[in-house]
Design a protein that fits this description.
The protein is an alpha/beta fold. It has a single domain, classed as Response regulator (Rossmann fold, 3-Layer(aba) Sandwich), CATH 3.40.50.2300. It has a five-stranded parallel sheet with strand order 2-1-3-4-5, sandwiched between helices.
């Protein structure tokens, strides 16, 4: 059996953090949680992840700024990154993809879709 995939969740809402963590841990994913994009960049420099779930509106560094740095860094340029957003009206799905995201999940999160997207993007 393959080892669990490493999922990095960047989300400033502890409610969404905890729900996403529990649901993905139940699906046998290894979860690390941070509260802003700057912490994502720092962690990605230290350890490998299979996917990043990135809230768009976070303090310190938001998801758009963070995904641009991820895409510009050779080691993480191809890493799957999923936008988690409640501000669907500000950007279209195409604009998120142009910014560098592989997928977009709207809040309130559909947890079945969350699991499907994470599994689809982390399959070998």
């Amino acid at each position: 059996m393959s080892s669990p995939k490493n999922v990095l969740i960047a989300e400033d809402s502890s409610v969404i953090q905890n729900l996403a963590r529990k649901i993905l841990e139940f699906q046998n994913f290894k979860i690390t949680v941070v509260k802003n994009g700057e912490q994502v960049i720092q962690l990605l420099e230290k350890e490998p992840f299979d996917i990043v779930l990135l809230d768009i509106n976070m303090p310190v560094m938001d998801g758009i700024e963070c995904v641009k740095i991820i895409r510009e860094t050779e080691a993480t340029a191809k890493l799957p990154v999923v936008a988690i957003t409640g501000n669907a009206r500000n950007f279209t799905e195409d604009e998120y993809k142009e910014a560098g995201f592989n997928e977009v999940l709207m809040k309130p999160l559909n947890f079945d879709k969350l699991v499907k997207v994470v599994k689809d993007l982390t399959e070998d």
